[in-house]
Amino acid sequence: MRKSLVALAAGCLTALAVTGLPASAADAPIVAQSPSGWKPSTVTIAPGDSVTWSNPPGGGFHNVCVAKPGLDPSAGCGEFRNGAPGADWSGPTYTNSHTFATAGTYKFFCEIHTTSMEGTVTVKPPDTGTGTTNTETITDTITQPTDTTPTNAAPAPDTTAPAFTGKPKRKASRTALILQLGSSEDATLDVAVVRRAPGKRSFAKVGQTSLKVKQGHNTVTVPRKAAGKVRSGAYRVTLKLVDAAGNRSASRTLVFKVA
Fold this sequence. Notes:
Elements: H1 2-19, E1 27-33, E2 37-39, E3 42-45, E4 50-54, E5 65-66, E6 80-81, E7 97-99, E8 104-109, E9 118-123, E10 169-171, E11 177-183, E12 187-196, E13 204-213, E14 216-222, H2 224-227, E15 233-242, E16 252-258
Parallel strand pairs: 1-4, 3-9
Antiparallel strand pairs: 1-2, 4-7, 5-6, 5-8, 8-9, 10-11, 11-14, 12-13, 12-15, 15-16
């Protein structure tokens, strides 16, 4: 009877090894380094694993906005958001962990410190554990003449990201937010505006929008719904170019004050 039980246990262990059952889910910690960034700023996990963001006491005011795979958080916190901008989540007020079920690349940032506190979570596709079997087959082959007829090859995909040409500037105005910038190609300009009111220590989100720009020099006016009234305070305007193929430029931040 004892020998039968030992044999049964050994068979179960062998079956588990063959089927390649996944390991238990893991958690990747990310800590706010206020206001210079996250540590680490990039993590790689498997589907079903989670990420926990933490903000040490005295770390200031932050939140976490995670976009859907392949999108920028300026398009919305479609995957996860743990609190409104300006909320101090160094305590237990908010849920700071999120489990990622789908493979892809997820971008995240603090909605107040959009350029200095951003990072990436990469969820790798699951390992199927499928093995391969090498078989050797001997066959008689007949060499066929090479077909040299030209074919119409499909054009190569566009993988070149657009770029800002020159330094973006703000045109002085008390009635509107007017930007001057150069683009290496026709693209969409994503604009996100945050403002720190006089006497305040933190920035608050004013709005965001997307505008069409052409190759070369552009002068664009940010709509009132995104720029708000040009009131006294310190402003940070985050700019990013996106071309028709979805390629994204590096972010540029325009900083200015209005007396």
